[in-house]
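user: At home tonight, take the chain set out below, taking as long as you need, and be ready to discuss the fold:
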Amino acid sequence: MNDELDALIKRIASEHGVALSQDDPVLMMHTLNKVLLEQNQQAHAQLLSQYEAVLQENFNQWHLYVSKKTNALIAAQQNNASNINDQTVEQCVQLINEKIRIAINHEIRDFTRISRQAAIMNLLAAVLVLISVVLVFVVLS
């Protein structure tokens, strides 16, 4: 500390042309200012440390909040996608069922038409056989 004061005394003497002694009240003010600056620096360091802790706590809370909101949004989006997927699948199944029903109805109509034609041909054939039998009996009798 004395080396620092000696350097200060020499500087004041060289810059201002005033000689100071070790017990000069001006040096007391210098020491007092230095002590106050050190205390102020310690107080600022403590406040900065507290502020850093508050910022870290706020960041952690914000991170937790954002994580929860993000997870909720992701879950909602997945649920929405699942609902849309389910609706799409249901629509596709309904369309397939409708196409199958239409195809089956078409096949049934075709089969019914062919069956009716076969029945008519069988009936005509039976009538021809009956006519032939009647003719054979008429010719033989």
User: Anything to note?
Assistant: The chain has a mean pLDDT of 91. DSSP finds two helices and no strands in the chain. The first helix runs from residue 2 to 16.
